[in-house]
Amino acid sequence: MIRALYTAASGMSAQQANLDTIANNLANSATAGFRSRQVQFEDMVYQNMITPGSPASAQTSTAGMQIGLGTRSAATEIIMTQGDFNQTNNPYDIAIQGSGFFQVSLPDGTLAYTRAGTFHLNNQGTLVTADGNTVLPTITIPSNATSVTISQYGVVSAQVAGQTNATQLGTIQLANFANPNGLTSIGNSLFQQNLVSGNAITDTPGGTSGVGLLQQGYTENSNVDVVTEFVQMILAQRAYESNSKVVHVADDMYSQINGLVR
């Protein structure tokens, strides 16, 4: 019965982590470029009361008896489904249709990656994120530009006052990963690579590596499905209640055993 108390408690702890993840998903349901996460569970160590395969007689062996000691939250996986597009008509807002991430240079010089294409210009005319981080490769818009065009293949062009033809300013490149679901979230809609995700593979939009195309004047909404999250929340709540009921029943049984000595 003591085993049942700790086993049920592990289930309650795992569902608490599940609920925390669901709460974060719902809180970011309106965050541009946000990617929802899903908790993965695994069973814990088993106690061998009778080892499976041990001899029951000279000719037979027993199936054994193992008692599990609960569950735990093993990992959270990023869900990389496409979010809906929101038209803004802002020439510096860019959405990725398909796979891939924008490359961003952080203040400490490290690289980060994002799906949030809510860009603007800083005081030097450089394309930056909402937090002021430079988008790579660096694109600088002339101060006398009258219009800016970003093609679906990432080519940035500007119509400059006094010139007949548009001036090509550079090409936006995207990064992709062998396992984007394993990226590390660092906040501010940014990700960083690690051993699980693999190294970044950069390419121009629509290139041979499989990265998507760009849509100027759009932002990508969060991919959180609110209805699905509410269903998962109810399931987490019921699982938590079931485990708490086991704790209550085990406690009652233990109390009855203690009463036998009276």
From TrEMBL:
<keyword id="KW-0966">Cell projection</keyword>
<dbReference type="InterPro" id="IPR020013">
    <property type="entry name" value="Flagellar_FlgE/F/G"/>
</dbReference>
<dbReference type="GO" id="GO:0071978">
    <property type="term" value="P:bacterial-type flagellum-dependent swarming motility"/>
</dbReference>
<comment type="subunit">
    <text>The basal body constitutes a major portion of the flagellar organelle and consists of four rings (L,P,S, and M) mounted on a central rod. The rod consists of about 26 subunits of FlgG in the distal portion, and FlgB, FlgC and FlgF are thought to build up the proximal portion of the rod with about 6 subunits each.</text>
</comment>
<feature type="domain" description="Flagellar hook protein FlgE/F/G-like D1">
    <location>
        <begin position="95"/>
        <end position="158"/>
    </location>
</feature>
<keyword id="KW-0975">Bacterial flagellum</keyword>
<dbReference type="InterPro" id="IPR037925">
    <property type="entry name" value="FlgE/F/G-like"/>
</dbReference>
<dbReference type="InterPro" id="IPR053967">
    <property type="entry name" value="LlgE_F_G-like_D1"/>
</dbReference>
<dbReference type="Pfam" id="PF06429">
    <property type="entry name" value="Flg_bbr_C"/>
</dbReference>
<keyword id="KW-0282">Flagellum</keyword>
<dbReference type="GO" id="GO:0009426">
    <property type="term" value="C:bacterial-type flagellum basal body, distal rod"/>
</dbReference>
<comment type="similarity">
    <text>Belongs to the flagella basal body rod proteins family.</text>
</comment>
<dbReference type="Pfam" id="PF22692">
    <property type="entry name" value="LlgE_F_G_D1"/>
</dbReference>
<dbReference type="Pfam" id="PF00460">
    <property type="entry name" value="Flg_bb_rod"/>
</dbReference>
<dbReference type="InterPro" id="IPR001444">
    <property type="entry name" value="Flag_bb_rod_N"/>
</dbReference>
<dbReference type="InterPro" id="IPR012834">
    <property type="entry name" value="FlgG_G_neg"/>
</dbReference>
<dbReference type="InterPro" id="IPR012836">
    <property type="entry name" value="FlgF"/>
</dbReference>
<dbReference type="InterPro" id="IPR010930">
    <property type="entry name" value="Flg_bb/hook_C_dom"/>
</dbReference>
<keyword id="KW-0969">Cilium</keyword>
<protein>
    <recommendedName>
        <fullName>Flagellar basal-body rod protein FlgG</fullName>
    </recommendedName>
</protein>
<feature type="domain" description="Flagellar basal-body/hook protein C-terminal">
    <location>
        <begin position="215"/>
        <end position="260"/>
    </location>
</feature>
<dbReference type="InterPro" id="IPR019776">
    <property type="entry name" value="Flagellar_basal_body_rod_CS"/>
</dbReference>
<feature type="domain" description="Flagellar basal body rod protein N-terminal">
    <location>
        <begin position="5"/>
        <end position="35"/>
    </location>
</feature>
